[in-house]
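Researcher: I'd like a candidate sequence for this fold, 308 residues long. If you have to choose between options at a position, lean toward the conservative one.
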């Protein structure tokens, strides 16, 4: 499965300047390395008819700053300054499509759990990346409902994209892959369907598109929001509500949505074939419209693109 992120950056934006990737180093006792206290975003830049464009840049940067606020992390930079750092990094590393990772962290060698007064550093990197499930998108992927439950806001803030949150995702993904599946699906503590290891989930039943809402302890994904808007513009009824596990088994179609995964059809869950076991018509339609949007082929969604 081609879901590896390969660093393509000759330059990394690090605390206000572009440096060679080899210079962007931290000590082994770095607080965020030791405790998973870093925060990040995942953003994509796509080729369009007018050059490279970053998809929904301002939305990603705002979420990044909201995560910083939740973790009381003073980045000391405005939304415009962070957006500028992202654009500078993409420009410095060439014209290829890329995955972009802004990352803020407590740049201290203290192993104290008290972060008061610690320096906060900001880095921006670009990576070469195709589709997360690239060679399987055409035929769809096989998923397993994880025995690990999705974290909730009484444990860790699920609205924050913090490094430590993703240990939950890693455990579920490990479990799925060692069991012969492509990816995990998490359920909430109450047993409702939540999301994938790093993707939001949608089901289709009788022409209606359904996705879990905030009450299911999900990250309110930016790709998820894009899919909802695109689907409604296409005339589909989209409902956000609690989803029972067995509703996934009996769905007509199931798919993931996320920055890395983009739109990925799911053709079986727990060994149960979804409908005829092939990507469904509505999933393919949404995938096609999403691809057109990110590549600047649909004027309706041009406001989502920020030209590099």
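Model: Candidate sequence:
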């Amino acid at each position: 499965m081609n879901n590896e992120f390969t660093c393509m950056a000759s330059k990394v934006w690090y605390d206000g300047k572009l440096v060679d990737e080899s210079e962007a180093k931290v000590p082994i006792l770095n607080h965020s390395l030791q405790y998973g206290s870093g925060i990040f975003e995942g953003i994509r830049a796509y080729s369009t008819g007018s050059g490279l464009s970053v998809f929904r840049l301002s939305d990603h940067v705002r979420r990044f700053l909201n995560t910083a606020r939740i973790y009381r992390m003073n980045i000391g930079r405005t939304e415009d300054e962070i957006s500028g750092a992202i654009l500078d990094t993409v420009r410095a590393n060439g014209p290829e499509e890329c995955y972009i990772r802004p990352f803020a962290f407590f740049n201290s060698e203290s192993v104290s759990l008290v972060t008061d007064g610690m320096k906060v550093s900001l880095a921006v990197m670009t990576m070469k990346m195709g589709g997360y499930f690239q060679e399987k998108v055409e035929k769809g992927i096989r998923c397993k409902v994880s025995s690990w439950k999705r974290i909730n806001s009484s444990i860790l803030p699920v609205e924050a994209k913090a490094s430590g949150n993703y240990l939950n995702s890693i455990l579920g993904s490990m479990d799925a892959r060692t069991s012969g599946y492509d990816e995990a699906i998490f359920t909430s503590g109450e047993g409702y369907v939540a999301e994938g290891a790093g993707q939001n989930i949608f089901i289709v039943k009788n022409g209606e598109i359904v996705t879990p809402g905030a009450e299911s302890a999900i990250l309110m994904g930016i790709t998820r929001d894009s899919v909802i808007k695109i689907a409604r513009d296409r005339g589909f009824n989209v409902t956000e509500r609690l989803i029972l596990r067995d509703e996934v088994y009996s769905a007509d179609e199931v798919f993931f949505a996320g920055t890395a995964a983009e739109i990925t059809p799911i053709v079986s869950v727990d060994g149960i074939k979804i409908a005829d076991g092939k990507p469904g018509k509505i999933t393919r339609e949404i995938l096609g419209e999403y691809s057109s949007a990110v590549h600047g082929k649909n004027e309706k969604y041009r406001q989502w693109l920020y030209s590099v």
